[in-house]
Write a structure and sequence with these properties.
The protein has 4 helices and 2 strands. α3 packs antiparallel against α4. It is flat. The N and C termini lie far apart (76 Å). The mean pLDDT is 87. This is 1997_t:CDS:1. It comes from Cetraspora pellucida.
């Protein structure tokens, strides 16, 4: 029987997770409270195979990027612009031109049907134009998401306030 390579999307945990025992965490807590000298003077022993202070969690990353499952992710999560992705922006900056883009998609689709009847070789170019229009629409919709999330949260909070007011009236 041949050996098979089995790959998992989630890697095995690193071996150092075994260091996080209740005993070692208690030692770390006492060392942080009283210091290493007082800890060793009290007769307690430190682990020999690793530094006990390594059990303390690392400081959070505030800038740059981090790696998770072999993908690099920026710490500050922001949406990339169309120019950063290497695509042409078809609408002016700061303006929402969703209706015009939608009309352009419909117009280009009708043109695509006409082109496919008359000259099918030009079809892929028109498909690329439609693809670019749809990507621009997607970017515009994604720019609206934070506003949509704020509005949704405001509605949820207003509903919760109304429910609490009704509940207090019923209790009274």
């Amino acid at each position: 029987m041949s050996s098979q390579n089995v790959a998992s999307s989630f890697p095995l945990p690193p071996e150092f997770y075994k260091r996080y025992t209740d005993e070692n965490l208690d030692k770390l807590k006492r060392i942080k409270e009283h210091g290493v000298e007082a800890f060793t003077n009290a007769g307690d022993t430190l682990p020999q195979d690793f530094d006990i202070l390594e059990l303390e969690p690392p400081k959070p990353i505030t800038k740059g990027s981090y790696t998770m499952f072999n993908d690099s992710w920026p710490v500050v999560d922001r949406m990339r612009t169309l120019e950063e992705t290497g695509l042409q922006q078809l609408y002016p900056k700061g303006e929402i031109e969703l209706k015009k883009l939608n009309n352009s998609v419909v117009f280009n689709f009708v043109e695509l049907l006409d082109i496919l009847v008359k000259d099918p070789d030009r079809g892929p170019d028109k498909c690329e134009q439609i693809k670019l229009l749809l990507i621009n629409m997607k970017f515009l919709l994604n720019e609206y998401r934070p506003h949509q999330a704020r509005e949704t949260l405001q509605l949820i909070m207003k509903e919760q306030i109304e429910q609490r007011k009704l509940a207090t009236k019923e209790i009274q």
